[in-house]
Amino acid sequence: MAELLNQIEEYWSTRVEGYSEVNEKEINGTQKENWLRVLEERFPDKAKADLKILDVGTGPGFFPRILSEAGYYVTAVDYTEDMLEKAKENTKEYQSQIEFYRMDAQNLEFESSQFDVVISRNLTWNLENPVQAYKEWFRVLKTGGILLNFDANWYGYLYDEEKRMAYEKDRENVERSQLDDHYLCTDIDRMEEIAKKVPLSAKNRPGWDVEVLKEIGFAEIRTDESIWQSVWSEEERLNYASTPMFLVSGQKGEN
After folding, report:
1. Which residue of 15, 22, 172, 245 lies most exposed, with the fewest beta carbons within 10 A?
2. Exposure string (b/e) for 106-140, b if CB count within 10 Å is 16 or more?
3. Average pLDDT per run of 10 along the chain, which is 255 residues long?
4. Are 222 and 250 in contact (CB under 8 A)?
């Protein structure tokens, strides 16, 4: 497991600046307000100062930046050291409201029952053991705590010809619209090799997630496969039309 985890870290270390720039577009557009609304609508009914939020796989600090600016306190983790340094730089105005830690999402170092909310975006697909990650996120949630996981069927086109054709159509539409291609500005070959080694590229999601969350013990499990419509820009919609983002959520009930 360590070998693949290190490969993933090395890849994302090369993506720090580019990924941060993509996040910056979102922050400076209407997405910031849209994301805040989507999150707050699902948060437990607690005062901001009392709500303990964990952002897993924070990357360049997208969620901590939005939430701290809105008055929340956030704990954020990522395995890639360079990403964490960028996240600290991007959130320096709100450093008193954010704690950053280098951790593996599949093996968190927090005590159990610490957080009211666990949030994550575009991470689960990229894990070698997503079941273990979900178990860890369940463990660190308080009773009544909420999981909000935003993800997509990334790289499913490696296993499905229809998805491959849809993916290639996305590339054509982005080029025709003269927008930045979020795939072609990355080391796509390297990422595809990683995607072939992790299990979720070949799964049908979020159905897979729902079954896993049930087995772990989550309650009130819900999916929203149109959540992308609430938060994506036109550029994102064209780039990712074949891989629409979904939300899978669940609550930690009584034992």
Report:
1. 172
2. bebeeeeebbbbbbbbbbbbbbbbbeebbebbbbb
3. 83 82 80 95 96 97 96 97 94 96 97 98 96 98 98 96 96 92 82 94 97 98 98 93 97 85
4. yes
